[in-house]
Write a structure and sequence with these properties.
Layout (H helix, E strand, L loop, with lengths): L1 H13 L1 H22 L13 H12 L9 E7 L9 H15 L4 E4 L14 E8 L8 H9 L2 H5 L3 E5 L12 H17 L2 H25 L7 H31 L4 H28 L7 H32 L6 H4 L4 H15 L10 H11 L1 H16 L7 E2 L11 H13 L7 E6 L7 H13 L4 E4 L3 E2 L5 E8 L6 H13 L1 H6 L3 E5 L1 H35 L3 H26 L4 H4 L7 E2 L2 H29 L4 H29 L6 H33 L8 H6 L16 H11 L1
Parallel strand pairs: 5-11
Antiparallel strand pairs: 1-3, 1-4, 2-3, 6-9, 6-10, 7-9, 8-9
Helix pairs in contact: 1-2, 1-10, 1-11, 2-8, 2-11, 7-8, 7-9, 7-24, 8-9, 8-11, 9-10, 9-11, 9-24, 9-25, 10-11, 10-20, 10-23, 14-24, 14-25, 15-21, 15-25, 20-21, 20-23, 21-23, 21-25, 23-24, 23-25, 24-25
Amino acid sequence: MRLALYRLGRACFRRRRLVSLLWVAAVVVVSVAGALLSRPTVDSLSIPDTESQQAIDLLDERFPEASAEGAVARVVFAAPEGGKLDRPDYRQAIGRVLSEVRDLPDVADVTDPFEDKAVSPDGRIAYAQVAYSVPRNDLADKDREALLDTAEPGTRAGLAVEFGGEAAQPRPGQGAGELIGLAAAAVVLFVTFGSFVAAGLPLLAAMLGVVFSLSMIELSTRFTDLNSDTTALALMLGLAMSIDYAMFVAFRYREELRAGEDPEHAIGTSVTTAGAAVLFAGLTTAIALAGLVVVGIPILTQVGLAAAFAVVVSTLVGLTLVPALLGFLGRRIHGRRAAHVQDKAALAEVYEEAQHRAQGYRADGKPTFGMRWVRLVIRRPVLFSLASVVVLGILAVPALDLRLGLPDDSAEPESSTSHQAYDLLTEGFGPGFNGPLTVVVDTAKSGKDARATAESIGQELSGIRGVADVSPPVPNKAGDAAVMTVVPGSGPTAAETEEVVDDIRAAVKDTRTSGEADVAVTGQTAINIDMSKRIADTLLPYLLIVVGCAFLLMIVIFRSILVPLKATLGFLLSLAATFGALVAVFQWGWLNDLLGIHSTGIIVNLLPVIVIGLSFGLAVDYEMFLVTRMREEYARGNTPEEAIVKGFMQSARVVTALALIMISVFAGFILADADLTKSFGFALAVAVFLDAFVLRVTIVPAVMALFDRAAWWLPQWLERRLPHLDIEKSDIAPPETEREVGEDAATRT
């Protein structure tokens, strides 16, 4: 492998024009194809093999007239305190509002609250249902604005007119978040490299990789339905990882030049060492993300595979395009001064100060802050290990209150019309009205009358604690199925509502067992509950798969048992702390004003499993970048302590810079509109911060110092059976002796 990577780096250097042109051509072709052939994304969710999904499928089969996929909205009217909507002037105003709504494009049907008895018991609040003939994704912002504008006749008459439902919500957008993240990344790159040209290289490589990934993902919509959140998450990940990998290879290339290597050999060495870390880090991250398939939820499968593809592209960019671009850059990666120096002695003088600093010393011979820090940590390893664990443990405490779900209109800002409509409906009809349950009764197998059977079941359900109302059953045309609406006494995201769903399913169990009828509970609230349970049930198996694969891979790379074990336990601890911060901010509302976040009171149920996959991949990235250098120094014959210090000094700066870049990119997505994207960006920014500045900078050197030589211990029987990847630099030869390198590699295998 060592020789293959070395040859790949040199080949990309020698044929840099061809490699760059191939990448540009691929990006152009795929971008054009994606723009011409892609189809709109979808917002629908499905959970195979759950009761709620089976009920939806049954509704589509037995009630085809009611299974339209058009968007819906609610127009909510409220009279002033003490007033009633049956006043003639109020009724006329409501009629004018609904008349304007009916005239809107793509509106298929609008109900009348007075004819449908959709008026609260006190007569003050009423609502009308609006059905569109097109899905939500086919509605533009102008359609939403036109809907909101119809409120004017009602508000002029003194009524409160608010709008709820999906058609009334603005389309999620990315805004300027990614641009802010890119700007911050550019600043960090410039500070790290000290050159605008060198700082622009990782950004250029990242942009080409991201455009290629997103275009391929868009092109896939031609062949399959893709959820609207998939592209945003792939963009976030692809942008961060592409910059990450490109910078790591470029940083090693600059280091090799400072050591006196010629550019071609420096690129070959960089791809062999840093490129190997990129390859295995990318492989681990891709496996972790592709593992989302085991959860069995289509949206997670789509997100996982799309994100894994973005990581694979980022890895290929780091191993091929970056070496090619570095070939164009040459010695200018150090800035103009180094680029124009021709005399070797003068060039060595230019590099001396930077090389001295990379070793941990300033120009005056005094140790840098990084050198002082790592020596302090390894002198007091127990103290720093315990202190770090305590900090992460405290941050993890809020995670004990983690509540999963999908946000509804109540999660919108209080000033929004959707939130106001939600509050009015709760006031007029009870909290459960915003999350009704749909009970489907199927008597096709028994041949019994569906209406009579459903009426009997409805009477039983009315006696369940927490059920506020059960509507009369509505049969289908064939009379072999009926639908009832059950209104809980609690809100859609309340724990009591989940108990109501469980009690309903338990109550109709005997009916299903006897063969009298198949009864299933569905509706958005039941779907959210089933999805949260499915995710909770698969979290542990998924975690075992991800951690297990990465653990085995790290054993092969590091030739150690304790190093992978340390990395795994550290990840689990930082993951708990990340979830704790997520709960504190998005569920409890801490720091909402400071961060500009609106607390939803719940955590999006898709988030934990995605964060586990990606944050573990990121943790392995930094573990690879940092510990491979320590391993390399130890393989050269340094003592364990010397290996820790030298490896830390050679890697800590780039790991810190990479972490700052990724934090900037992820934090920029907090400005997005979509709740999933917003919370995802926050969680990953926190995960990277904790991983880089607590785990890697503190816990890793402290624990490695505690392990001493045992850190690199591997049983002999396992040593003999594991493949040798051989990625250390200790015996990499310059180009003219490559044949000897190949012969040596053949002998070792």
